[in-house]
Prior knowledge:
two-stranded antiparallel ribbon
Amino acid sequence: MKAAWCWLGVWLGLLLAAGVVLAGAEADRYAEARRRMVDRDLKGRDITDAQVLAAMAAVERHRFVPVELESQAYDDTPLPIGHGATISQPYIVALMTQAALIRPGQRVLEVGTGSGYQAAILAQLTDQVYTIELVPELAQAAADRLARLGYSQVTVKTGDGYQGWPEHAPFDAILVTAAAPEVPPALKEQLKDGGRLVIPVGPMLGPQYLLRLTKQGPTFKEEVITPVAFVPLVKPRKPAP
């Protein structure tokens, strides 16, 4: 009987070890995919900020896409996440983050939470991240996902991104992850002096351009970063009369 228990313990140990190996192999497979993404699609282009590259290497993008699309999570392409929304391609996420010039301790607002991926990247750079999502289902799913993955420094709310989040303003940086026909005045007002607003601007069918506006006292320095193609920044529907 003692020998039987001994062999049972050996088999249980082997099974546990096999499970650990398989789990490690899964983690390693995605880690290698992230490394290739960073080297090929980010370093291989014009992403040079070491902190941004580290953030992109750390955040597990496959956690932020539908299960059936996990195999495509580290391709440099946007992916649908439901409700007419997408998760932006990794290069654009990195480019916008780099353009925002975020440093530790700064307060950042994201407009357009989506799956929560961009917010997770921002949370690698600072401990004060606020993010707004118009679609309640996306906002709740993102909040649950971010909490489950340990991003306690991110605060999510459902609301109108055009109005920003005045209760937590002013912000050192604001990133908008959908295209507006023009820069929302409320977002400009909620920037600190020296703050950066990174936003795609243009009609749904283009042309759209990614802009960076830097607040300089009562004026703004405007820079065109690159042509882009984003889903539109949607306004809440007015209630029927």
